[in-house]
Amino acid sequence: xxxxxxxxxxxxxxxxxxxxxxxxxxxxxxxxxxxxxxxxxxxxxxxxxxxxxxxxxxxxxxxxxxxxxxxxxxxxxxxxxxxxxxxxxxxxxxxxxxxxxxxxxxxxxxxxxxxxxxxxxxxxxxxxxxxxxxxxxxxxxxxxxxxxxxxxxxxxxxxxxxxxxxxxxxxxxxxxxxxxxxxxxxxxxxxxxxxxxxxxxxxxxxxxxxxxxxxxxxxxxxxxxxxxxxxxxxxxxxxxxxxxxxxxxxxxxxxxxxxxxxxxxxxxxxxxxxxxxxxxxxxxxxxxxxxxxxxxxxxxxxxxxxxxxxxxxxxxxxxxxxxxxxxxxxxxxxxxxxxxxxxxxxxxxxxxxxxxxxxxxxxxxxxxxxxxxxxxxxxxxxxxxxxxxxxxxxxxxxxx
Length: 400
Prior knowledge:
This protein is of the alpha/beta class and 400 residues long. It folds into 2 domains: 2-210 and 384-399, Glycogen Phosphorylase B (Rossmann fold); 223-383, 3-Layer(aba) Sandwich (Rossmann fold). Helices cover 37% and strands 15% of the residues. It has helices at 13-28, 54-67, 75-88, 105-115, 164-175, 188-195, 223-228, 251-260, 293-302, 317-324, 354-365, 372-383, 385-399, and strands at residues 2-7, 32-37, 48-50, 92-95, 119-122, 181-185, 204-206, 235-240, 266-271, 284-287, 305-308, 329-332, 346-349. A 7-stranded parallel beta sheet has the order 3-2-1-4-5-6-7, sandwiched between helices. Strands 10-9-8-11-12-13 form a 6-stranded parallel beta sheet, with helices on both faces. Strand 5 (119-122), helix 5 (164-175) and strand 6 form a beta-alpha-beta unit. Helix 1 crosses helix 13 (385-399) and helix 4 packs parallel to helix 5 (164-175). The protein is globular. The relative contact order is 0.11.
């Protein structure tokens, strides 16, 4: 079986790691797999092709800001992708993220329809069925056709013009005539949203994301991190996200929680802070992004509680990573977040309810460290990359 994966990243970011794990396990099983991706560091491995041209990606982003149109300014990058598809001749294509200024949607979907290639399309956000948004939040215009977008200046950012109704119609037309397709979503929340969109009537299923629990995300020794940060017997609360301090990722809520918990012998470690010159409360340790996955797993293992305060998430991989490192989770039940870690290992409350959040974190901090292995084992049984791989293999076999 020849399977080709398309994503914005490869081996980097949450979706890029998922795509690479599926590719690598497929190769190990004797399939011929390939990854085509648009952005990020060059990955020099067999059948992995970065088709996106960085200069064109930057131009695409600029033109989206100026014109209000996205998914249509990467002519040369898209041509490189289609040329690779012609050469590789996949039996199936598994699509992940298609936004982020690196591919033209119309020619890609036209190619799939003309060649009648079976497609698995995994939704990691709401971009597939909205005019432009990755997350529609409280807006419901995507149910009727978009237009008059209240979030023009949010990603993908547009400065002046509103073409969301036009792009909505284009996306709807792109799916028309796409015959052999199964749509998957990592969370029931996102699958239910998709069933309310123009995708209703399509075969939409839930396949949870998986992570590498054998080699990366499992409990680890952490004494060296305690020494690095001058920690003794304090409880540690961890928050991790790229652009953590943005409104979407909720870092300000975590800082507010840290302020409220000063004097309680608790340290907060924030990973993913862009501006490290910002002043934080004395019980906060602010760090930039950590790309080394082994080191990130050590921080998860160091924490007594992982906290997530995002405004909206689909099925955040960070919760899975903490879970599989044996760390209980607390946070806001926004989007599909509450589906990641079951009680009692995960405790989630209404978005913005600081009293409930503080109670959830306090409860998780009381857990004995002896249960870490038990928590990690439960996480691995649910969310290992092998479980995800087997679930997708059954879908591939069904489509073929």
